[in-house]
Design goal:
Length: 154
Amino acid sequence: MNLNIKKLHMEAETVKASTNVKSKGWGTFSISIVNNHNGKRLAVNESLYKILNKLDTVQFMVIPKKGLLLIGKYLGEENSYKLSTTGRPVVYSAGLVESLTEIFELDYTNKTSMSFRHIEIDDSDKSVIAIVEIKKFEVEELEVEQVNKAEANV
């Protein structure tokens, strides 16, 4: 996934209060988004936390059209979130989880959490950015759906 971070910034949505490399021996990267009546939080696994240089605070940038969530120290956003490191690194924020759930249309029916493991790391600038694929958009499927709708309207 070769992404131009500066270009993506132009496509980003603000999260309401709120050279690509794969894992180099750090292990599998993952995040989990928990959304239930007992709490809303975003957890980062230890491998990802280490490669993000054990940040105290993080920012999130959402690129809905590409189904991506970016995580880094400074992404030009207003909101920074504290990473609680008592145990697993976690951001406790109902607003963040609600925004991500809405933006990515995440369905928590019959479940309280979702894990995402398709993560690449961009360390081409001075800071490290995790690029998390939350939703995969298949261009061909979208085109077929649009053609089918167009044919139905004829």
